[in-house]
Amino acid sequence: MSTFKAPKGTYDLIPPVSVKYLAVREAISGPLRNSGYGYIETPGFEDVGLFARGVGESTDIVSKEMYAFETKGGDQLALRPEGTASVLRAALEASLHKQGNLPVKLWYSGSYYRYERPQKGRYRHFSQVGAEAIGAEDPALDAELIILADQAYRSLGLRNFRILLNSLGDKECRPVYREALQGFLRGLDLDAETIRRAEINPLRVLDDKRADVQKQLVGAPMLRDYLCDACKAYHEEVRALITAAGVAFEDDEKLVRGLDYYTRTTFEFVHDGLGSQSAVGGGGRYDGLSEMIGGPALPSVGWALGVDRTVLALEAEGVELDIPAATSVFAVALGEEARRVLFGKVTELRRAGIAADFSYGGKGLKGAMKDANRSGARFAVVAGERDLAEGVVQLKDMEAGEQSPVALADLVDEVRARLA
Ligand code: ATP
Ligand code: MG
């Protein structure tokens, strides 16, 4: 044990569990890569103003959870708390939107940082895979993203997740609703902080989890009754397209998200086995974000799925991912000469695309065979002086327990044939 520990709210991904995280990232990005989304990577930190303006000063993410700091050079930076603002910033900076091919479809995978109260499923460093479709107002794009997330979760074997869907209206109808909601909230008996929230971002009050607040919210004006015709038609089309794809969802009129930039389509993926940290992913349309960060009007839609909570969801459902053993062949050399020869064979196997590993550290037969077992390899290749004198190695099938000599020169072909 070292004198140091992982910082509070963080944890390390360590074998053998870490392969699950790789598999989840792979499963989420697969459907995106298969649907015209290009890979984008942006820095882990940005100008703090990007998030302050993009995500919103009044959000918890910016007001409480951001790791903001000043550099030695005097720059005000923040570790990224989310991906959308960065991806849009990068797309605008590279003028991707000017190349006449809207929407620009991008996917990303990385680490995000929020100064939260750590608990199961809520960390200060976590990882997301996300997708953004920038520069088109088309309900089919909203539907595409929801369908692809559903496909990703299903491909992992998840079943007990639900898709919650809502429309938050646009710059025509939302202000009217906001006003009506504020009028209603002013008549309630709320604590000081909630009253302040009601003034800055009244929609967020609807999302308050406390029972005494929820009780008072009965009879609150609902956004659905204020949606303009364009928003209503748009939302109906999104619903129809998802329904036609056979993807089940629930209309959730109270669904709002913790970021200020959302408009129209808003959705969340929740898993019922996770307790209070039930959101495994979320997203929606953000038609005004580009202008908020100084760009042109670029109506866009996206989502981010949490990798950590997806792994927890898999565990909650008892899903065992079908992950092949990392190593196919494990070489065990007995003696110096055998060591040199087998090390060469391992290199040859690897160059032929066969996953191979070697018994290092000069162990005896027993210890080395233990390592071979632990590696999960299908075959062990064992050789000592006598085998080499005969120009063979012993190829042991670890599943069947059978062992037979194979000519040294034929080893790679023989292993390849048996693995096929
Ligand atoms: P929550 O309501 O649980 O705080 P959020 O609305 O802040 O979630 P988003 O910003 O939409 O979450 O991020 C998308 C996904 O990223 C979430 O659904 C969740 O799976 C994951 N996520 C967000 N914050 C954390 C965190 N602190 N630790 C682990 N995963 C997180
Ligand atoms: Mg949050």
From TrEMBL:
Chain positions recorded as L-histidine binding sites: E82, G83, T84, R114, Q128, E132, R257, Y261, Y262
EC number: 6.1.1.21
GO terms (BP aspect): histidyl-tRNA aminoacylation
Pfam families named among the record's database cross-references: HGTP_anticodon, tRNA-synt_His
Gene Ontology MF terms in the entry: ATP binding; histidine-tRNA ligase activity
Domain of life of the organism encoding this protein: Bacteria
Keyword annotations of the record: Aminoacyl-tRNA synthetase, ATP-binding, Cytoplasm, Ligase, Nucleotide-binding, Protein biosynthesis
GO CC term (a single one): cytoplasm
Subcellular localization, as worded in the UniProt entry: Cytoplasm
Catalytic activity reported: tRNA(His) + L-histidine + ATP = L-histidyl-tRNA(His) + AMP + diphosphate + H(+)
NCBIfam families xref list: hisS (TIGR00442)
Family annotation (PANTHER family): HISTIDINE--TRNA LIGASE, MITOCHONDRIAL-RELATED, HISTIDYL-TRNA SYNTHETASE
Family the entry assigns: Belongs to the class-II aminoacyl-tRNA synthetase family.
Subunit architecture: Homodimer.
The protein's name in its UniProt record: Histidine--tRNA ligase
Organism annotation: Streptomyces lavendulae subsp. lavendulae
